[in-house]
Design a protein that fits this description.
8 helices, two-stranded antiparallel ribbon, five-stranded antiparallel beta sheet
Length: about 190
């Protein structure tokens, strides 16, 4: 392993502490961590508040955010990190400094005690995928927005008391409300 990562996670960080694990993996990965973090430790993550204050795009050593002494006193360390042999964290952060009130995404990457903190080569390797992860997250956001817009449009059409259809840019029917489906098909066939 080039970067000595034992486990990594993608966490959505919300102002106010509603942090959620969205994905994870690695040699020491256990799916139970999702539930534990999302139900309890996400609200008590010692890295969350310092991470929100230190918004930047890049890789941050865990010790820049939380001292080792403070980490060792935390519930997250004593009840989760020790159990999975996760001792040294580097945080790949994708939180824009311009949007201090918006949610962001972070990818904490954990190394075992035997691997220790990351070196300069590992830091460089962890910075390489950042633009690609940003692109993927932007695409994910646009897809979610599009899906929400489609759902709203379809719901609005269903609420109408007249036959209504939603047509795409090619003139094909994307959605037809219930009244439209009950109307004679010959009216709509020219558009399909």
């Amino acid at each position: 392993m080039l970067t000595s990562v034992a486990s990594g996670f993608m966490i959505s960080v919300e102002p106010g502490g509603a942090n959620l694990v969205l994905a994870g993996g690695g040699l020491n990965f256990d799916p139970a961590v999702f539930r534990l973090y999302n139900e309890h430790y996400g609200a008590n993550d010692p890295y969350a508040e310092p991470g929100m204050r230190n918004r930047r795009i890049g890789v941050i050593q865990g010790e820049e955010l939380v001292s080792r002494g403070d980490l060792f006193k935390s519930e997250l360390y004593n009840e989760v990190l020790v159990r999975y042999d996760l001792a040294h964290m580097s945080l790949m952060t994708l939180m824009s400094p311009e949007s201090s009130t918006q949610a962001g995404h972070v990818l904490p990457l954990w190394a075992s005690p035997k691997h220790g903190p990351m070196d300069a080569a590992s830091i460089h390797l962890r910075q390489v995928p950042i633009p690609h992860v940003q692109t993927a997250l932007l695409l994910r956001s646009k897809i979610a927005t599009s899906q929400a817009t489609n759902l709203f449009s379809e719901t609005a059409l269903e609420a109408m008391s007249i036959a209504a259809i939603l047509i795409n840019s090619n003139g094909r029917i994307r959605h037809m409300n219930q009244r439209g489906r009950l109307s004679p098909r010959r009216k709509w066939s020219a558009l399909e």
